[in-house]
Sequence to fold (142 residues):
Amino acid sequence: MSEVTIEILRSVSETDTEQIAALVAQLTSKEVVPSRFSEVARSTDATLFAARRDGRIVGVLVLALYPTLTGRKAWIEDVVVDSAERGTGIGRALVERAVSEASARGAATIDLTSNPSRKAAHRLYRACGFTERATTPFRLKR
Fold:
């Protein structure tokens, strides 16, 4: 198997958009809105990471950074690796690259959430040094 590279996407091509849409569809049943991919790539508040093998995007992760009154924080979202590539270290490489970027940009903490059914993802996050927090998430949908 060829090497996987992790890169930051500042723009997305039509091919990138198709590949990211296929990955996001593996993550959620929510409607995939491809125009959001370019919006995230151009954002100064978020960083879109892509894992590529042989030019094809096989994993993605979004890192959001924001200031708070208690310090700069980061949030990891939309971590997904193609089902055919899972278990090969791509998820770990994406998370480690995002953690490195968040640290370099001054984040005091990095948070993420994960569906309780995603046991393999939980093992990955623990292996990367994340610990579960005793907190109650709230959401307001609009």
About this structure: The two ends are 44 Å apart (CA to CA). Strands lie at 4-9, 46-53, 56-68, 71-81, 109-111. The chain has a mean pLDDT of 94. The CA atoms of residues 47 and 73 lie 14 Å apart.
